[in-house]
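Running log. JK asked me to keep both predictions on one page so they can be read side by side. First protein, sequence followed by its tokens:
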Amino acid sequence: MSAHSSLSPTLLLAMPQMQDPNFARSVVVLCRHESDGAMGLVVNRKTDTRVSSVAVLDPPVTRDNGLEVWIGGPVEPQRGWLLLGHDPGTPGTQEIGAGLYLSASVDTLRQIIESEAGPEAEHRFLLGYAGWAGGQLESELAASAWLTVDVSTSLIFATPAEVMWESAIRSLGVDPYSLQMGSGVH
């Protein structure tokens, strides 16, 4: 697959018939899409767990702004990712779309946890990710398991998690409750 046919970055919106509990009513930022597979982060699965309680930083953080853990997907749930709405200017940060950056830097994580910016700022700490083998995502799209919509940092960072899926579908001019229910994807 050439870079021109890549779907990333885009948002994947699970169709109502999605039966996998990891993806039911999920909004996924597709970060990478190549012929050998795809990788994305579920961005609407917030937890009540503080990052400072699960991230072991040495030395420990000096300030905790209350940043919470989000569930990024079922693959490698022990692996942490930072999804950012700004370029932190730190090594290892990758731009995945206009105004959207991905990092796994411990230094960047420390800066964010210790910053004055509250947990509602344009950053998310996610554990795990969503992954697809080569051709798998294309098959799921052909089976109408996902809708696609352009990436919106305001949707990701400013929309409450519990209404993000519905808001994203409505941004397409579609009533999510009028979508055809089908046999589903497992």
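And the second, directly underneath as requested:
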Amino acid sequence: MRKVKITLPATLTNLGPGVHSLGLALGLYATVEVTERADETLLVEPEGEGAGRYGVGLQHPVVLALMRVFQRLERAPLGLTVKIANQIPLASGLGAEAAFLVAGLISANNLTGNLLSRAEILEMAAQISRRPDHTVTAILGGLTASILQDDRLVYHPFPVNAPRVVVVVPTIDNYPERVAAPERISFDEAVYNLSRIPLLVDALRDGNLTRIGSLMDDKLLTPLLRPHISGYDHVVEVARRAGAEAITISDNGPALIAFASTGHKKLAEAMEMAFENAGVKARSWVVPLDTQGVVVSIAQSA
């Protein structure tokens, strides 16, 4: 029986001014192992972050993605065992759901003879998720820019040279899954964001934390999300005093990412304590950037 193991990184998207365009891969991982079975059983075994989120195996995003490929190619194994070991907090803005989707697509493609090219997998993931910034970054790693243009994927990877980052995820009851965007934005706000994107990409390539910090502000999405993250302003102030050069909300939040040159552990502790002072429980990780993206291994099981 064939066995496919897929490992994918967490993804930081809506990176500063790069709303729905820039993505950065982080060293938190979801690992999915899919093994063919000789019977018609579908066995899903999740562990780690969000293990109890999906009550029935058929509802898990990995399984739904597997089925999309099987249906497209009109072929499928008789049965499957799907093991999921996940480090990425769910519903936090760190791309766990996108990682599950990509893992399912790539696993199914490998189990059916690799009939889909890498470009087709990239485009299929982007079209299903409607968030190529997450899916492209998870597959390629590093720093990417991507859009869907007339339902076609356009993307480009960039070199990145930044130190470790601090990831802080607060637990906020009733945090909105999506915040409605305004129908109109001001010209000045749009120019503010757009003018900073190429400079931010260049600063990330050079690993220049001072310039990264001066270019990370966002006038479009952050003002909509800030009111939903209890203690946000206090946490940001404390983080800067503790050495953070730049702070951004990942995707739609509530995860916060802090960039610093040193003292990452103390910075993480300071941000956790600041959230606690605001009455919010939070967890933190100090992680490197991921520059490898998806890792695929294939084996023949007994």
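Observation for JK regarding the second prediction: The two ends are 6 Å apart (CA to CA).
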